[in-house]
Amino acid sequence: MVSSINKNEHKHSRKDFSKEYKEEFMKRAIELSRKASIIDKTGGVFGAVIVKDGNIIAEGYNQVKKTNDPTWHAEMQAIREATKKLGTPHLEGCVLYTSAECCPMCLAAVYWAHLDHIFYGATVDDAKKYGDFQDVDILKEIRKENKDRRIQFEEKMRSEAVAVWKEFSQLPDRAHY
Ligand SMILES: [Zn+2]
Fold first, then answer.
1. Annotated catalytic residue: which of 9, 23, 59, 75?
2. What is the mean pLDDT of the chain?
């Protein structure tokens, strides 16, 4: 049984992205993290770039403090700029370089955007140690059962909400992504 599992894993074997890694792109991500945190002081120590076919197509840096937007993370900005530039919500063939390990929000965004790979510099533990950023704690919250989470979410008016889903499911031109 073990061999069949291994065979299956082999079938879905991942591409080795380490050969594609280029230091200049990580340097740029780290440079943007310095811009955000020390030069322009727009937010935390986070910078990111998205690379396609060996070129940077989008950049981002943390601007949470400047914009009062808690979602303005470097990776989110880079993803938004890349998808706008390419005219698609999906970024297959693109690689994210980020100066620090993604938070749960950005990691989820990477999945929504179908990026191929992530290279990161500092770890979430570094962000916690030197900046008291709470990524680790958010991950801990997400891993808990709903009933044990600090912020609760409750189901209400399901049938009314599902009525729209039913209508949507009948649309010939319904959104799909
Ligand atoms: Zn993030």
1. 75
2. 92
